[in-house]
Design goal:
2 strands, two-stranded antiparallel ribbon, mainly alpha, 88 residues
Length: 88
């Protein structure tokens, strides 16, 4: 056990780190923006859902996406959904 710290693997992705932390502390606050809050567990679930949705419209690993969004919690969710899918 490493005292609750996140893995120090050099090859860990942001999704690996999210899943690791969500597995340990799913209820802890991950992000807050404009009054909206998401826990690690919620963000892991949202990332999985968004990745599935993107995949259903043909987006796949390595695909490049561009989006222009304001600073909102949905922007963070979309970032992690793309990362979960492996899109760039």
């Amino acid at each position: 056990m490493n005292g609750g710290r996140v893995s120090r693997r050099l090859d860990a992705t942001v999704i690996d780190l999210l899943h690791e932390r969500a597995g340990r502390h799913p209820e802890r606050l991950f992000v807050e923006c404009g009054g909206a809050r998401r826990s690690y567990g919620e963000m892991r679930g949202l990332a999985d859902e968004l990745a599935s949705g993107l995949s259903s419209i043909g987006v796949g690993p390595g695909d490049r996406l561009a989006f222009l969004l304001p600073n909102r919690i949905e922007t963070v969710e979309l970032f992690f959904g793309c990362a979960r899918l492996g899109a760039v």
